[in-house]
Write a structure and sequence with these properties.
cytoplasm, Serine Threonine Protein Phosphatase 5, Tetratricopeptide repeat, 24 helices, RPAP3-like_C, single chain, two-stranded antiparallel sheet, TPR-like_helical_dom_sf, TPR repeat, mainly alpha
């Protein structure tokens, strides 16, 4: 049983006593079961529920302001003298907590330690009680908490006497003092005096829960079961959650049935009807929209915080597995991470690494694609996608990704080594593909107006006016197959340079570029250098041109250099030598 902070269970306004530290001394603890050790102090131990706290430790926001009927502080002389007497160490009961405090600190507002070593402010204001009475009450609360029930009873008695002499009008504070002293009587086994003080408290504040509960326990101790039953039932009207009252009602019901038989209810005193204003937990107001919104926002923040903690933990576990070479386990952790944050780029690149190590190249490429959608310039995503494409034997795409990496950072040595290796593999694959295709003679007819014209070589007829990329590709392949650079030159001469990138998009390879360069150098440069310049200006914008150009042998680059040197030397009014040099930089 603990001291009560307030008479908060009878429907009146609850008052809070500011005490140091933040937990008030002897504050009401709704979770404490009075059946614990030292509960009632009598022979008949019975469980008591929530609400059977000890004496009140009342205070409110008045911070000690009070009004007395007499208006003079002299009326507190008797209680103050009693307090001073104890402070000087002359109390009949010997040294108390307040004596220890005064001796150690020497000041009125001294903080003193309880049984658990905490400190409290004995001068904290309590409701409308003047400071001397508030101190007496606080000292009583502390003594009660420390198990010094007789000393606590004396403090409460002095406070009650001082209240009577002061003439102040605060029935709630006096009710709490009587209720607290009743708790001391109950602890010392003095049930009769407990009943008297509880009755006085209830006269001041009807339907106050704790005096009712204490009186019921006192009645039960004295085996006055009918009155105990009535008080317990009244308690349950005020607060249905007091489990001790439920237990006691059940226990007393069995006893009364044994004692009075089936008609036991007829012998009960009348159970008073508790007004709604005094009832607790019966009507619960629905939360307001603001409260609901605040709850939702808090829940969202909590969920986000928990998700962040879980994400960080899973990511770290995944990283640790990678360091240990346990890529399958790491893959699972990264997958869990993506369920929490599906747009976290680094997780995609990390999981792509695991897929690469497990030789699951398709999944690795997909993760790199997802990462590049989130961060289009992510260097790791390009590099790991290049490795995935290499594993899928898509050397051209691999080469393109590696070039992107080197364009962002030319110092990535791993990308340089991979590019050299992939270049060799790409040349080999192109050579294998070329040798696997059977060569055939393709007749290509040039149509000029209503007449048909053709450029013929050995078994070759070339259409010099193609209308789409397919016809152009057939004509170019025919010229390449016959190594007829003159026919290729005629084809280029009859083709709009702006259409060249479109026509070559699906036919571009290293051999095609070399062949076109030879045709331009051997046949068109002397006839029309302006046309050669125009073709070269558009040729480099063809898809995959840079990749194919990179794979050309060194001798082909040497031929290109010679072509641009001759083009620069040719006289033209449409371009300058500086224009040719800038264009050459795109090829050489």
């Amino acid at each position: 049983m603990e001291v009560e902070d307030s008479n908060s269970n009878h429907g009146t306004e609850q008052k809070v006593c500011p005490v140091e530290p933040s937990q008030p001394v002897g504050g009401e603890d709704g979770s404490a079961a009075p059946a614990e050790k030292g509960d009632m102090g009598n022979a008949q131990k019975k469980p008591h529920g929530r609400g059977d706290g000890g004496p009140h430790s009342e205070s409110n926001s008045h911070h000690g302001h009070w009004k007395g009927k007499g208006g003079s502080s002299d009326k507190y002389k008797a209680s103050q003298e009693a307090k001073d007497k104890e402070a000087n160490g002359t109390s009949k009961r010997g040294s108390t907590a307040s004596v220890q405090a005064d001796q150690s600190g020497g000041s009125k507002g001294t903080l003193l330690g309880g049984s658990a070593g905490e400190t409290v402010n004995l001068d904290a204001p309590c409701g409308a009680l003047p400071p001397p009475l508030a101190r007496l009450k606080n000292e009583g609360n502390l003594l009660f908490k420390n198990g010094q029930f007789a000393d606590a009873l004396e403090k409460y008695s002095h406070a009650i006497q001082g209240y009577t002499e002061s003439g102040i009008d605060s029935p709630e504070d006096l009710c709490i003092l009587y209720s607290n002293r009743a708790a001391c009587y109950l602890k010392d086994g003095n049930s009769q005096d407990c009943i008297q003080d509880c009755t006085k408290a209830l006269e001041l504040q009807p339907f106050s829960l704790k005096p009712l509960l204490r009186r019921a326990m006192a009645y039960e101790t004295l085996e006055r079961y009918r009155k105990a039953y009535v008080d317990y039932k009244t308690v349950l009207q005020i607060d249905t959650s007091v489990q001790a009252a439920h237990d006691s009602v059940n226990r007393i019901t069995r006893l009364l049935i044994e004692q009075d038989g089936p008609e036991w209810r007829e012998n009960l005193p009348e159970i008073p009807l508790v007004p709604l204003s005094a009832q607790q937990h019966h009507i619960k107001e629905p939360p307001s929209a603001e409260v609901l919104q605040a709850r939702a926002e808090k829940a969202a923040r909590d969920a986000e915080r928990k998700a962040e903690v879980l994400f960080t933990a899973l990511k770290q576990e995944g990283n640790d597995f990678v360091k240990k070479g346990q890529h399958q386990d790491a893959l699972g952790k990264y997958t869990e991470c993506l369920k929490i944050k599906p747009e976290e780029c680094v997780i995609y690149t990390n999981r792509a690494l695991c897929y690469l190590k497990l030789e699951r190249f398709t999944e690795a490429k997909q993760d790199c694609d997802a990462a590049l959608k989130l961060e289009p310039t992510n260097k790791k995503a390009f590099y790991r996608r290049a490795l995935a494409n290499k594993g899928l034997k898509d050397y051209l795409a691999c080469s393109s990704d590696l070039q992107e990496v080197l364009q962002q950072d030319p110092n990535v040595q791993e990308a340089e080594k991979e590019l050299e290796e992939v270049t060799v593999l790409l040349r080999q694959s192109l050579a294998d593909a070329s040798s696997a295709k059977p060569r055939r003679t393709v007749p290509i007819i040039e149509i000029d107006g209503d007449e048909q014209s053709s450029c013929t070589g050995e078994d070759i007829s070339i259409n010099l006016h193609p209308t789409n990329s397919q016809e152009f590709g057939q004509a170019l392949n025919a010229a390449c197959s016959g190594k007829n650079t003159a026919a290729c030159a005629d084809l280029l001469a009859s083709t709009d340079p702006q259409l060249l990138p479109q026509y070559l998009s699906t036919y571009l390879n290293g051999h095609t570029i070399s062949f076109i360069m030879q045709a331009l150098d051997s046949h068109l440069l002397e006839k029309d250098p302006n046309l050669v310049y125009q073709h070269l200006s558009y040729l480099h914008s063809t898809d995959r041109f840079s990749v194919v150009l990179m794979m050309l042998p060194k001798e082909e680059h040497h031929h290109m250099t010679q072509l641009f040197e001759r083009l620069s030397a040719a006289e033209s009014t449409e371009y300058t030598k500086n224009d040719v040099q800038n264009l050459a930089n795109k090829y050489i």
